[in-house]
Write a structure and sequence with these properties.
- With 324 residues, the chain is an alpha+beta fold.
- It folds into three domains: 97 residues, PAS domain (Beta-Lactamase, 2-Layer Sandwich); 64 residues; 144 residues, Heat Shock Protein 90 (2-Layer Sandwich).
- Helix content is 41%, strand content 23%.
- It has eleven helices and twelve strands.
- A five-stranded antiparallel β-sheet has the order 2-1-5-4-3. Strands 7-9-10-12-11 form a five-stranded mixed β-sheet. A two-stranded antiparallel sheet has the order 6-8.
- A hairpin with a 7-residue loop joins strand 3 and strand 4.
- The longest helix is centred in the middle third of the chain and has 30 residues.
- It is globular.
- It starts with 7 loop residues before the first strand and ends with a strand.
């Protein structure tokens, strides 16, 4: 592997979590030359906590070529998003590390659009085959309870990948939306249905409190539903089991309808105030760091907007503004 051409760094480490090999473009990816990384504790080399380093080591030693996204502190003021492909290499735990800021730096929108469209198409087809195979296996009545649990997990992760592809596709899409008047409550219910299995696992209900006689909003529901579904799921994942996700619909300024989504568990670190809606700009944006960025892009492309209020203390409020 030519890590320089891939704009990547290859790290390998010992069972004691010290770097034994550092190759590739370490200076650009990890802000240190390779020779300074050797024999350095893994958590310091990656700019993460020791606990997170142990988790990554365990994933690498499973040798399943798992991919992890981490928020790294590499000496700069802002957190750095890193993508790690984990596995075993020459008998050692290792990771191919890419700095997502470096990969996206200077990329014009048309390049992002073409890349996202191509990746979504190329990944979606084999993923559909995997999904069909898993669902076929699940119909086997002779499976043990343990195997059924494994297939349940596989189905859940397939759905997660499908949502990530939707976010990637929507963030990069530059076609004109098909806008029409729709009942906002119905669009929210349809978005909730897209993540119904995940909500059911945690016994979480999305409750909508709607002001009387709200006008219809002008949206493209096919493009809004998947990004809204991911944001609703993000909020739900931070809630205790058997607790509701609360959504309020009400009138805003003339010609506007507001959707207010409360996230009692989330906190907005001061350093993320200016990057909350940027790709990979916030730890709140799950789904490969694109959920909030994709939501804002879709909302603005349909004549609306999204804003967030929060602080370092738990409790945030997202306000989506729709045109009528």
């Amino acid at each position: 592997m030519n890590a320089h051409l891939l704009q990547a760094a290859l790290l390998a480490w010992s069972p004691g979590l010290r770097v034994t090999r550092a190759q590739g473009d370490c200076a650009a990816v990890l802000h240190r030359p390779a020779e300074e990384l050797l024999d350095r504790p893994l958590h310091l080399a990656l700019g993460i906590s020791p606990e997170r380093a142990r988790e990554l080591d365990a994933r690498a030693r499973e040798d399943r070529r798992a991919v992890e996204f981490i928020s790294s502190e590499l000496g700069s003021e802002d957190a750095t998003p890193l993508r790690l492909a984990l596995g075993m290499d020459e008998g050692e735990a290792s990771a191919c590390v890419q700095n997502l800021n470096v990969l996206l730096e200077g990329a014009p929108p048309v390049q992002i659009s073409r890349l996202s469209s191509s990746l979504s198409h190329e990944i979606r087809n084999p993923l559909s085959s995997v999904k069909m195979a898993v669902q076929t296996l699940a119909r086997n009545t002779g499976l043990s309870d343990r195997d059924r649990r494994r297939l349940t997990i596989a189905n859940r992760e397939i759905r997660t990948m499908e949502r990530m592809l939707w976010l990637l596709s929507e963030y990069g899409r530059d076609t004109t939306p098909n806008i029409d008047a729709h009942v906002l409550r119905s669009v929210i219910q349809e978005a909730t249905g897209m993540v119904a299995p995940e909500l059911a696992e945690r016994r979480i209900e999305v409750r909508v409190d709607e002001e009387a006689e709200l006008p219809r909003v002008r949206v493209d529901p096919n493009r809004l539903r998947p990004v809204l579904a991911q944001v609703l799921l993000n909020v739900a994942m931070g809630r205790p089991e058997d607790s509701p996700v609360e959504v309020t619909l009400r009138r805003g300024s003339p010609g506007r309808v507001l959707m207010v989504l409360k996230d009692p568990a989330a906190a907005l670190p001061p350093e993320e105030n200016g990057t909350l809606f940027e790709p990979f700009g916030s730890r709140l944006a799950r789904g490969a760091g694109l959920s909030l960025a994709a939501l804002r892009r879709v909302m603005m492309g349909q004549g609306g907007d999204v804003a967030a209020e929060g602080s370092a203390e738990p409790g945030m409020v997202f306000t989506l503004t729709f045109a009528t």
